[in-house]
Structures are given as C-alpha cells and as structure tokens.
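Researcher: Please predict.
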Amino acid sequence: MERNNEMTNQEKVDLLPQQYEPKRFNRWILKIPGLDSFYFKKIKLPKFEVIKYNLELIKTFEVEMYSPIEPSSVRHIFNLAVQNAIPEIEFNDLDAIGNKVSKWQFLNCKISNVDFGSYDYDDKGLSTIKIIFSFEMINVE
C-alpha cells in the first residue's frame, strides 16, 4: 500500500508540544458583543495590588483595537459607552492549535475610558482605539 506524504490527524497531534509548553502572548481571542475578534490588537488583563495591607483586584482591563472603516467600530464603541452596560466580555488563552487554555469572563462591564487616538499627516500607521473597561465580577477557568 502506497502512502502519500500527508500526515494523519493523530500524527499532527503527536507533534504538538506537551502541557509544559509556556503560553504565548500572541495566542488569544477576545469576544466583545458586536465587534469582530480580529479587530483586537492588545489586551492588558487585570492585576492585583496591595492596598492598605490587603491584596485587592483592580477591576479594570485595557484593550487596544484596530479601527476599521466599515463597519464603524467608532460608532459601536460610542453606542456601548452610552448604553453603559455590557453583560459579558470573554478572553481566552489558546494553545498551538486553538484550544482554550484558560477562560476569563468579565461580567457587568462598562466602558470607563476611550482614547480614539490622534491623527497626524506624517503617521502612516494604522488607526487604533484604546478602551479601559471596568467590571463587577470575574470568573477564571
């Protein structure tokens, strides 16, 4: 029996790194209602800080996204800010083949700050929007 040079699915899985592979900063997906996931460029997840001798979660996270011409993300961000209630935003770390490594659910979110950037005739870069979200609850799986 002659075998072609294509690998079987099991052979591909066997080549993947084991569970001790470190996570990569560029393997993630963010889900915000009404916005395509590929718009997002960066996310800065919440952090803990010691405040008056107590470890407290700072209930904000930051997102930087590309601003496409159509559909207008600017219009959608304005609408989200005006309605001031986003029930759930989800962030997922991914492994090498796109499986979820961890899931962060931010519940009862609000936009607390938006920076639509500045325009400059000398800048040929892509237009981005920076958003700071606050949240009431978080679930991490």
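Model: The chain is about 15% helix and 45% strand.
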